[in-house]
Design a protein that fits this description.
The complex is a heterodimer.
Chain A: H1 50-70, H2 79-100, H3 106-126, H4 131-150, H5 155-172, H6 177-211, H7 234-244, H8 256-260, H9 269-273, E1 282-284, E2 293-297, E3 306-313, E4 316-320, E5 325-328, E6 340-344
Antiparallel strand pairs in A: 1-6, 2-3, 2-6, 3-4, 4-5
Helix pairs in contact in A: 1-2, 1-6, 2-3, 2-6, 3-4, 4-5, 4-6, 5-6, 6-7
Chain B: H1 2-14, H2 16-23, H3 34-45, H4 58-65, H5 67-80, H6 85-94, H7 100-115, H8 121-128, H9 136-139, H10 144-155, H11 161-170
Chain lengths: ~350, ~170
């Protein structure tokens, strides 16, 4: 019986072909519609799921190979099928991670483990295997990875814990250890470790911004890198802090020569505030948290496109007002309804 | 009945508030009072976290797009009223689109206020360094009119030394 990782995002009825996880790039009217809700014929235009799928395929081929060797078979026996289901499983684990994000409350983690369990079981069933093998490996791996994360474990320990518990979960339900371990490694890596990394980056963005409160480095009348004296630098502050935290929004502005040589300019406040404008790794969100970016625009202006800052709390932001870096409730005031928030979601 | 109609027209036709409100129903939303508008908008923006935030309010647009019409009101507000930092910033921003000659008049008024210690040096510098958007002084740094104004500042005994230092650095 084969219990390889499969399409975790599919609901119990495979014919529905619906996603559990949201598309991190928000490419469709509903975030659940990655690839136009057609994973068979469609493509994921920004490739957000592509790399997780590749990683999933790789993990699956390796664990399948190890299982083969332990049974005195060729390493690559069934590698194609393993890669196929591994790719689906990898993307699905990533999708569940996007839906549940970083480690949260006990309830959140219970639901996440449930999603992985159902997804794992469904994959197993779709491959003609036993539902329970996939169910236990996915659920155990997710639960253990959540626990490791909650106790401060790093990404590697989450992957290792996920792999071991996934194998054990499969084994105690009568399945194959290595196949369960493959599922567990995927759950640990592409959901828990990845999302923990995202959460850490977000927290660092807020922490770094807090460290600059009172600084005059980004003042209107001082020079800062390629921003001259007497220029507005609220977007420069956001760029510098996010880049320092490992969440660079890139340098999309300036002529092509500058861009080619890495001397472009950061996104303007107006670009941060334009929900239709794509900023790599940053997703528009109506639920801002620490480390999110807040932005407001002035329609029709080119010189002063708007204002932007870093969210540091439930109702507080840190931004460059031209005279210093300040923390206040800007962006959350009752008369500010047109604020756009973005969250770092990571990029490959 | 005829007397009633005449009385009605006489009353409402001559009532300045009513006449003004009819005027306001046109395509432009001219505020009744510059000072009131500045105070109201300043309350809305609360502080100068984003000094261009007034531009997001439609009621500010009328002043912003027609600064010449409101220049006298702005000068009068600065002369006769007490104002806080946000209101001052909103006033300077409202004069952003003035042509150079008119902006010189506005700047001269601010220099007077500085000498009278009604505004501080940083506030005055924000009028000339483009902090509120008007970059006449930066763009036309070498023009006779601006060089002349700087000379006047430098020779004025009442000018604070910090401002003189700043001017010396930029000319």
């Amino acid at each position: 019986m084969i219990s390889m990782p499969g399409p975790r995002w599919l609901s119990g009825d495979a014919s529905l072909g619906r996603w559990f996880g949201t598309d991190p790039q928000n490419q469709f009217a509903s975030p659940y519609l990655a690839m136009g809700n057609n994973p068979v014929n469609g493509i994921d235009p920004d490739g957000e799921f592509f790399i997780p799928a590749l990683i999933g395929a790789g993990i699956s081929v390796i664990t399948n190979g190890i299982n083969n060797l332990s049974n005195n078979q060729s390493f690559f026996n069934g590698a194609g099928k393993a890669a196929f289901w591994g790719a689906i499983g990898g993307a699905a684990s990533f999708g569940i991670g996007v839906a549940f994000q970083g480690t949260g409350s006990f309830g959140n983690e219970l639901l996440r483990a449930g999603a992985h369990a159902l997804s794992g079981g469904t994959q197993s069933e779709l491959q003609g295997g036993n539902f329970l093998h996939g169910f236990f490996s996915g659920g155990f791996a997710s639960g253990v990875s959540s626990g490791i994360s909650a106790f401060g474990g790093n990404g590697f320990s989450q992957i290792l814990g996920g792999g071991l518990s996934g194998g054990v979960g499969s084994k105690i339900s009568g399945g194959n250890f290595w196949q369960g371990a493959g599922t567990g490694i995927m759950v640990g890596a592409l959901n828990h470790a990845y999302q923990s990394g995202i959460s850490k980056v977000r927290e660092n963005i807020a922490k770094f911004a807090e460290g600059y409160i009172g600084s005059t480095e980004w003042n209107y009348d001082v020079e800062k890198d390629n921003f001259g004296q007497n220029t507005n630098k609220c977007n420069k502050f956001v760029y510098d802090v996010t880049t320092e935290a490992g969440a660079s929004p890139d340098l999309p502005n300036g002529n092509w020569i500058k861009k080619v040589f890495g001397f472009g300019s950061p996104p303007t406040a107006g670009q941060w505030a334009d929900a239709d404008y794509e900023i790599p790794g940053w997703k528009v969100s109506d639920k801002p948290g620490r480390g999110s970016v807040a932005a407001m625009a002035i329609p029709g202006q080119s010189t002063y496109t708007g204002h932007t800052g870093i969210v540091s709390g439930m109702k507080s932001t840190i931004s460059a007002n031209g005279k210093m870096i300040i923390k206040n409730d800007w962006g959350f005031r009752s008369n500010q309804s047109n604020v756009v928030f973005r969250k770092w979601v990571g990029r490959w | 009945m005829r007397y009633f109609i005449i009385a009605f027209i006489a009353f409402f036709g001559c009532n300045p508030k009513v006449a003004q409100s009819h005027k306001n129903k046109g395509s432009t939303m001219r505020p009744l009072n510059y000072s009131e508008s500045i105070i109201q908008i300043s309350k809305k923006v609360q502080d100068l976290t984003w000094r261009f935030e007034p531009l997001t309010y439609p009621e500010f647009e009328e002043i912003y797009l027609n600064p010449k019409i409101y220049l006298d009101s702005a000068l009068s507000f600065l002369s006769n009223s007490e104002f806080n930092d946000v209101e001052f910033g909103t006033i300077v921003l409202s004069m952003h689109k003035l042509p150079l000659d008119d902006y010189m008049l506005f700047t001269s008024k601010n220099f007077e206020l500085l000498k009278e210690k009604q505004i501080n040096v940083n506030q005055f510098i924000s009028v000339i360094n483009g902090f509120y958007g008007n970059d006449h002084f930066m763009k036309n740094k070498k023009s006779k009119i601006i060089q002349g104004f700087y000379k006047e500042i430098l020779t004025d005994d009442l000018c604070p030394p910090e401002l003189k230092e700043y001017i010396k650095e930029i000319i």
